[in-house]
Amino acid sequence: MIGSAGESSGKHAALHVVEHRDCKTCKKKQSFRLMLQYRYSQLYYVFRWVMQKQYFLACNICKRGWALDAKKVEADLKQKQTPDPNPFGDRYGWATLLVIVALIGVMAQFSRAA
Q1: Which tens digits make up the pLDDT trace of 101-113?
Q2: Who has greater pLDDT, 47 or 10?
Q3: Which of 3, 19, 47, 113 is the most buried (most CB within 10 A)?
């Protein structure tokens, strides 16, 4: 079997350093990085869609931090014209499936007309 339907997986991405502040775990001033953690479902490893995502501000050394409001972070990223951290396939994999179904439908219509 090529893959399985409805499988759920998770990924994380380390984004840019946002600020420097005192880390309660490290007990000294550290850089804090914006992190994205998300879960996606997939169909045969090709057609994916994001089910849940959460942004964190985490210490670069100990990786401890706190959760941030996803809508606020995405608005800030859009305002700064930062590209979306989710890979294209994870964001628009479901649209690929729709395009393939539409193409099959169009080809079926043309084959009937001929």
Answers
A1: 899 999 988 887 6
A2: 47
A3: 47
Tokens at residue 83, please? 């590209």
How far is it, in rounded angstroms, from Cα 55 to Cα 69? 7
Task: Look at residue 4 and give its three-state secondary structure.
Answer: coil
Q: What region does 68 belong to: left with phi over 0, alpha with psi -120 to 50, or beta?
A: beta
Q: What DSSP assignment string belongs to 31-76?
A: EEEEEEEEEEEEETTTEEEEEEEEEEEEETTT--EEEE-HHHHHHH
Is this structure's pTM higher than 0.85? no
Task: Give the list of residues 6+ apart from residue 60 with CB closer than 8 angstroms, or none.
Answer: 17, 30, 31, 32, 33
Beta bridge partner(s), residue 13: 36
